[in-house]
Design a protein that fits this description.
Chain A is mainly beta. Chain A contains three helices and 16 strands. Chain A is globular and about 90 Å long. Chain B is globular. Chains A and B meet through β6, β7, β8 and β10 of A and α1, α3 and α4 of B.
């Protein structure tokens, strides 16, 4: 105890001394401080490029309970909690969709680093955080971290660069929103006189809409299903493009393979779970004609097909059943975007979930279409106001009745800071 | 059967790819230079002669700030030994993702294969404070510096020096070409100076702050721009303020890519001529290289 007291007295004295010494000698170096105004340890010039993008708006839905309806065979709401994905305009009335904060800077001569933080009213998450290589020879590049997969035409596009307020139904159905995973990507730009990009990814594969890794216990008499092995998903893609004057054609094809583990409350009556494998194949085409610097017409179509095979466990009032299950499903969209002038853009989109062919399916509906139109006013590249109407025939209530939804959305998207340019 | 035809398709595809790759490797032996704009390509060709392939990306028919980042540009950048850009953020809206996607270590910023011309000239209209409330401004100053004929020699010198650093084996040829270009350019500048003398003190308006370096060089006063702020299309309110100064203005300068309805309206109402000026090589039919670019500008603006 005594030691402690002596020690604290000593410390206090030291403190007083250390404070008083500089003060008593301050006249000696006051002059120095005035002349020496450099800041040798400042690193403020190394601040990365930072951008903040805010997206909000107002939504009207003629079906007040639209968010509880299903797209049979594709999107359902057995467990609302688990299906929480960051869709936008989920509520009627005012919606705050997100504030996106992005950072970019070179790490050193060998790597670039990108990071995007996606913040909503109930929390923030890392949407993307990845490095890319800068020095690999022979046209190779490696990307690693958490990123939006390069499959398809629009999977790697951030929300502020979408042509409509929402993603096509097929993206919502197959990926929840987009295939955004942790993993590694390698791409190779072929040494050809035209654009040909070939790439592949190995991903963790937690995306629950098509894959998922967590095992589950279906209950007696069936033994528990083990977790899928990591990494669970691999993808490959090829893209090529040709110009003819002001015409640009871009073609792409992609494939995804992964193990699927989904558990929608198998332990409660009416619940179900799935154990198996999913394959997705996609093809896309974009044809764009640039009329002038501020006017263009772009036609874009994409088709995705999913083959899913495995064991389906169902809980019908406490009894667990297991059946072989195969689903062959597909979806497509086709859109036309016309930029009529520097500040205005118009768009039409036809969306379809189709070929809903499942081995045990009483509720599957053949075709689930949606029609969307939008008009945009862009005062500058940094602000956008959009009005969108969609006629959605893809929604069904729990009794299997088709519920046609008319949706009107007014969207406002603003960005500040170092907003980077977009790719084609 | 199915597997067999699939195998056949794959073989054909691979053969074609390999053949194309081989031809490409042979053709790749020459020095590959990619420039963002035609005027840079034209200066570069004056120095390299036929000793290099020079490819320019942006179409001169389009607004240099808003070029469509076509995937074909990525393929061109992939093979470049040297990328020469205008800089001063003229390419900020379209070039960065292309360079990133080109998977080419030679042309990354800071490398010898990356040349930013804006570093070699003194820029005008450098804003004291930067805010997007002032429109789409360029923090480093007006990026259209190459429209002053006196700056072209500074740019040519920078390109010449970089070429010598990249391909020292061609230094003799480059020096010969550069000296010839310098002499011819000085001669032409003297001609242009003589023709432009009578324009001193003229008052003009233009759509965008595009020809400012040229105007400053020849003592022409810019009374106003048709766009109220950089990148913002004209409003009726702004046109009304232009109408107040129109009686004092002698010429309306118009580029090839902005809408010309406002210029047409003012021209008709105040009987002032609209002069369409090329801003880059290829923007108008008579402009085939860096010499004819200024020939054309001088001829058009002086009505000769």
């Amino acid at each position: 105890m005594k030691h402690l007291q002596i020690y604290s007295i000593f410390l206090t004295m030291l403190l007083v001394l250390s404070l008083s010494l500089p003060l008593s000698y301050s006249h000696l170096y006051a002059q120095e401080t005035l002349t020496n105004i450099s800041d040798p340890f400042s690193q403020s010039k190394f601040v990365p490029d930072i951008a903040v993008i805010v997206d909000l708006g107002y939504a009207y839905n003629s079906q007040k309970d639209f968010d509880t309806y299903e797209r049979p065979g594709f999107i359902h709401h057995h467990d609302a909690e688990e299906h929480h994905e960051h869709g936008f305009f989920q509520d009627n009335g005012f919606n705050f969709n997100y504030a996106e904060i992005s950072f970019y800077a070179p790490v050193d001569p060998f790597f670039d680093l990108f990071s995007v933080v996606h913040a909503g009213t109930d929390g923030a998450e890392i949407e993307e955080a990845y490095f890319t290589t800068l020095q690999l020879p022979w046209g190779f590049k490696i990307k690693g971290g958490k990123f939006l997969s390069a499959i398809g035409r629009i999977n790697d596009r951030h929300a502020h660069y979408w042509d409509f307020t929402d993603l096509p139904l097929v993206y919502q159905a197959f990926f929840g929103s987009q295939l955004n995973e942790i993993g590694v990507q390698v791409n190779w730009l072929a040494p050809l006189p035209f654009y040909l990009l070939i790439g592949g990814e190995i991903l963790k594969g937690e995306n629950e809409a098509s894959f998922g890794t967590e095992g589950f216990a279906p209950g007696t008499p069936y033994s528990a299903v083990e977790d899928a092995e990591y990494p669970n998903v691999c993808t490959s893609y090829i893209k090529t493009s040709f110009d003819l004057g002001n015409f640009t054609l871009l073609l792409g094809a992609s494939g995804i393979y992964g193990k699927t583990r989904t558990n929608h409350s198998i332990d409660t009556a009416g619940g179900h779970a799935f154990y198996g494998t999913s394959y997705i194949a996609g093809a896309d085409i974009t044809l764009r004609y640039d009329v002038s610097s501020y006017q263009y017409i772009a036609l874009q179509s994409e088709y995705l097909y999913r083959y899913k095979n495995g064991d389906l466990y169902e809980n019908s009032g406490g009894t667990i059943t297991k059946d072989d299950f195969t689903a062959k499903q597909s979806g497509l969209y086709s859109q036309l975007i016309v930029r009529t002038g520097k500040v205005t853009r118009l768009g039409l989109r036809y969306d379809l979930l189709a070929k809903n062919d499942m081995s045990d399916n009483h509720e599957a509906k053949e075709n689930l279409p949606r029609y969307t139109a939008m008009a945009e006013y862009n005062p500058t590249e940094f602000s956008r106001f959009r009005i969108q109407y969609s006629y959605d025939k893809s929604l069904y209530d729990e009794y299997g009745y088709n519920k046609i939804n008319h949706q009107i959305i007014v969207q406002c998207n603003l960005s500040i800071g170092a907003h980077g340019a977009h790719s084609f | 059967m199915k597997a067999k035809s699939l195998f056949l398709i794959l073989t054909v595809f691979l053969t074609v790819t390999i053949a194309l790759t081989l031809t490409h490797v042979v053709y790749a032996k020459q020095l590959h230079i990619v420039t963002t704009y035609n005027y840079i390509a034209s200066i570069t060709q004056q120095i390299t002669g036929k000793n290099a392939t020079v490819t320019s990306l942006a179409s001169p028919q389009f607004d240099p700030h808003y070029i469509v980042p076509k995937p074909s540009y990525i393929a061109k950048l992939r093979d470049a030994d040297l990328l020469i850009i205008n800089g001063a953020q003229l390419e900020i809206g379209w070039l960065p993702p292309l360079v990133r996607q080109a998977n080419n270590p030679l042309i990354q910023t800071g490398k010898i294969g990356f040349l930013d011309l804006s570093q070699f000239v003194k820029k005008i209209e450098v804003p004291a404070a930067v805010s997007r409330a002032q429109g789409d401004i360029h923090p480093e100053g007006n990026p259209h510096f190459y429209l002053d004929p006196y700056n072209i020699l500074l740019l040519a010198q920078a390109i010449y020096e970089r070429l010598c650093a990249i391909a020292p084996e061609n230094k003799v040829l480059y020096t010969e070409n550069f000296t010839a270009f310098t002499n011819r350019w000085k001669q032409k500048v003297a001609e242009w100076d003589a023709s432009m003398k009578k324009m001193h003190g003229t008052k003009v308006i233009e759509y965008h702050k595009l020809y400012d370096y040229f105007l400053v060089r020849y003592g022409i006063t810019l009374a106003a721009t048709i766009e109220p702020l950089p990148g913002i299309p004209p409003t009726s309110k702004h046109i009304a303020t232009l109408e107040e100064i129109m009686p004092d203005v002698s010429l309306i300068l118009q580029d090839v890519y902005h809408p010309d309805d406002a210029a047409g309206y003012l021209s008709k109402k105040y009987a002032k001529p609209v002069i369409v000026l090329p801003h880059d090589v290829g923007a108008t039919k008579d402009v085939t290289d860096i010499f004819t670019l200024f020939d054309s500008i001088v001829r058009r603006i002086t009505h000769d």
